[in-house]
Amino acid sequence: MTDPTPPADGTDRSDPPGLADLVDLLRGRRILVLAGAGCSTESGIPDYRGPNGSLRRRAPIQYGEFVRRPEARTRYWARSTVGWPRLAARRPNAGHAALARLEAPGVVRGVVTQNVDGLHQRAGSRRVVELHGSLGHVRCLECDGRLTRDALQARLEALNADWVATLERRVSAGEIEWAPDGDAELPDPALDGFRVPDCPACGGLLKPDVVLFGETVPRATVDAAWRLFDEAEALLVVGSSLAVYSGRRFVYRARDNRVPIGVVNLGPTRADDMAAARVEGRLGRVLPRLADALAPPRGNGPRKNPSPGSGGASAPHHVAP
Length: 321
Ligand SMILES: [Zn+2]
Prior knowledge:
321 residues, Rossmann fold, SIR2/SIRT2 'Small Domain', three-stranded antiparallel β-sheet, binds zinc ion
């Protein structure tokens, strides 16, 4: 069996420093994964807070601004109309695949993610709590109805066919530049004539089903995350510097409950001094090796499988929700 995307260098077979300690820490324990933006960088979605972070060209939209100012909503949906197909084209990477592989035999009990791109689920992870919501859905602020972003995309494009055609021409001509994740700077005149659809059920105001700046994580989401936490015997932080409290609180409770903490990240994290094991590295390189060690593929010949028969690999299958 080979990793879906082998490391770019292709030649480095040595284990990253700290991996053996991390394997020892996690072996035989049920794991909750706390995932951050670093998971998605290898899928071409920039981590604005990560080591290469200062890429964001404009401040993210605030909840209050979105709700109160129609022109802010127009700008948001105009950018999103052109950006969404580009973001939706992004694919899960080897790190996502490794986490999904660890969930199948029950080694990973669930993933609590700060990412809104849906890539964990597309890689095969089933027990996922999206702390900050999902760009794949849209919610009505009046009737609380929910529709898929793809369904809204069809309406956005139908309402704005001429506008989209004009804008795509300007993008092709190089007049407007798009980041790989679909983020873009739209000059004000480019917004002229853009129409924002209302809720198809009640005519209410539609909002992306993500936690915008200035909003709090919904209580039901936090509760679902704590239920996963309570099933776990170890916390593994991957791809997050833990700059945001919505994620950091899980590390604090793990520390208080003496649940061992492991970290895999590129760059420092706010959990480093609480972690019993830490690996500095690219997730697409580290996580497949971790998965090999904790849940070795059966009947696999040449690859070294440390101590087969360890508790983790033989854990019973969980029943998917
Ligand atoms: Zn509605």
